[in-house]
Amino acid sequence: MAFPHLEKAEDGILSFGQGCEGEPLTQWKLLEDTIHLLREKTDRGTINLNTNGSFPKRLEKLCEAGLDSVRVSLNSPRRKFYIRYHRPKGYSFGEVVESLIRAKEKGIYTSINLLVFPGFTDREEEVEGLIELIKETNLDLIQMRNLNIDPDLYLKTMGRGNGMGIAQMIDLLIREFPSLQFGYFNRTKENFYPNR
Prior knowledge:
Elements: H1 2-8, E1 13-16, H2 28-41, E2 46-51, H3 56-65, E3 69-74, H4 79-86, H5 93-105, E4 109-116, H6 124-137, E5 141-146, H7 151-158, H8 166-176, E6 181-183
Parallel strand pairs: 1-2, 2-3, 3-4, 4-5, 5-6
């Protein structure tokens, strides 16, 4: 099914890992073989991976096989808050960041799926952490998604505080990183850098 789609669809995209079928990097060898087979037949279309970024070496193998883009999900660019929400088992926040770095070093278009909670995501410390993450990883795109969660539970876990406002946060990031893109969907490779 994937090959005809990549070969014939206008702006065709194939994404492994959509959040409801488990972490795709646990099946990295199958994905590596699949990407190799597809890229032997066509260079058309975009092959994307949506992941938690838990296995940097496995992600690197997929990049070498022909992966075009990767999106890593996180609620916070700061280790302690990432751990409080995601509760990683068998991997660390450092490996998540390393995955983004390795993918970028392999020439892959990188994005984060930032789970947004107004009043938390836009706190000054969170925005400062996001700036550091963007600098460290040379990120291309931030996809923002509403974090649909009980607000009392989330703030109890993350602590209460005040945000600057999501619009002001975005304006600050645009000033700091003029080439940083914002969106809601994974992009096809023809649209990775629309202003170039």
